[in-house]
Amino acid sequence: MNTISGENKLIFKNTIIIYIRMLIVTVVGLISARFVLQALGVSDYGLYNIVAGLISMLNFISAAMSTTTRRFINIEMGKTNGNLNKIFNVSLLLHIFFALFIFIIAETIGLWYINNMLNVESNKFADAKFIFHISTIVACIGIINVPFQSLIEAFEKFSYTAVIDIIAIFLKLGFIMLILYYPGNSLRVYAILMCLVSLVSFVLYSCVCMKNWSDIISFKLYKNCPLYKEIIIFNNYTALGAAACIGKSQGGNLLVNYFFGTIVNGAFAMAFQIDNYVYMFVNKLTMASNPQMAKNFSKGTLERSNSILEKNSKYSILIMSVFYFSLIVDLEYILGLWLGKIPPGTAFLCFLTLTDALVRSFSEGTNGYVQASGKVKWFQIVSSVFMFINLPTAYILFSQGFDAYWILICYISFDIIVIIVSLFMMKRILSFDVLEYIRNAYLSPIRCIIVLTVIVYLLRLLPINSMIQHILLIAFVGLLSTGCVFFIGLDKREQAVICNFFKFKMDLK
Fold it and tell me: CA 217: distance to chain centroid?
């Protein structure tokens, strides 16, 4: 019981650290986005995102390796005789290999796409290729950085990652402010400066690991090690899932670019900025608890892993609900405050991306649970198939003259299907008690969502004419959503824990 209490305190501490970091990163990131849009313009901003998105599509192996590396380090830490030096060095060599692979593919196939398929103004082709080369370097740096970042997260030292990410985001803001006053080609300078931010981040991560775990990261070449094969086989299925996720997002960007051009890409980029920043608050909760879930799975304490999963999913949905309803109640006004001049159609796109984020929050934690079990094959195959279907479905719709936002409706529809199918497979493959999970993780958040949907719908019918009324409306819904989550979403024991926490803090004063 003491161990569980200690684990809960560690998860809570790391969650607080992550959320402080996320609050700073989000605020600075939103400010940065406004200045980037001002410095580059909608079309150039859309161009940068579509070209960088091409590299993201090629980078799906790295995205999978990040998940795989964290999983193997966590499992090794749960063993009494684990060899973390072997895990780290094998992972590092594999990441260096994949970085070289991505570089070769990018500079051949990727460059061919830029030259032959990209829908961009003729006078922007040189800029597009320049951005592509720089983005390739950034991607390779990011790939090699993964084992260092995974090691820090496996030891649950999230304060280190928080400090590094905050330094990086402020450095990025500083560079963007310089671009505002740069008289030349600001698009190219922006690409170079973002590369410098990635390089600084890599140096800081490696320095932290060298200072704290020099014995683990000390280089040693492990030859004829079956671990290479084991990681690659496990990663193949994880890579399939990562390819599906990246294909869904970046492939969607390419489709939108092909049919509608870079200006519409700019509007989509802004919508996904909102989605990314909001969803990070949900995703980082999972980051704080996944190491404990994996370690308990490695020890065989499945009841504890199940409990972490249920709380993870429940709290993720509740947190997302607060953000969702607080934003959609007056989304046009919020976007106006943020961007000043709103690209056409951005408000409705933001509404759809936020709705998709709310849907995705229902699956938070389940992927980490499956990863911890090691039985990832059919989960990744089936869920990936459904995610890949998004693209041909959207292509058919666009070919028939449907508007660009229909791709987001496809995302929402197929995400719902993936959640249902994943729960069914958890029951069949892992003998997971799905009904108990739904009871503990879904029922109270769904009650919250129903109540808030009705209230927000009615509030949107009210005539709002002044700035004060807009601000009061947003603040009221924020407080209302928080209160609904507390009184309807949480049970009495969870309410008591929160009340005791704040009472303790007040007593300290």
Answer: 27
d(CA 247, CA 249): 6
- The tokens for 457 are 């719908």
Tokens 């399939």 -> residue: 240
Residue 147, amino acid: P
Query: What's the helix, strand, coil split of the chain in %, to 5?
Result: 85, 0, 15
Alpha-carbon torsion (428, 411, 387, 45), positive or negative: negative
Among 147, 175, 186, 157, CA closest to 66: 147
Q: Any residues with CB less than 8 A from the CB of 203 and at least 6 apart, and which?
A: none
Long-range contacts of 484-488 (CB under 8 A, 24+ apart): 484/321, 484/448, 484/451, 484/452, 485/318, 485/319, 485/321, 485/322, 485/448, 488/444, 488/447, 488/448, 488/451
DSSP characters over 177-222: HHHHT--S-HHHHHHHHHHHHHHHHHHHHHHHHHHH-HHHHS----
- Work out the angle between the directed axes of helices 331-339 and 467-484 (0-180°, nearest 10): 120
Residues 6+ apart with CB under 8 A from 259: 398, 404
Q: What pLDDT digit, counting tens, does each position of 179-198 carry?
A: 888 887 888 888 888 888 88
Asked whether residue 466 is domain-assigned, the answer is no
Residue 476 domain flag: no
Provide the residue range defining the domain that includes 133: 2-441
Torsion of Cα atoms, 188 then 191 then 194 then 198, to 10°: -130
Provide the pLDDT confidence category of residue 1 given band limits of 50, 70 and 90.
Answer: very low
405: in domain: yes
Q: Is the pTM of this model over 0.90?
A: no
- Distance (Å) of CA 287 to CA 7, 265, 281, 284: 14, 30, 10, 5
Based on the structure, what is the number of domains in the chain?
A: 1
On whether residue 460 sits in a domain, the answer given is no
For helices 186-212 and 2-58, angle between their N-to-C axes, nearest 10 degrees:
150
Q: Which residues, other chains included, contact 26 with Cβ-Cβ below 8 Å and sequence gap of 6+?
A: 277, 280, 281
Asked if 390 contacts 252 with a C-beta cutoff of 8 angstroms, the reply is: yes
> For residue 131, which amino acid is it?
I
Burial (CB count <10 Å: 0-12, 13-18, 19+), residue 412: middle
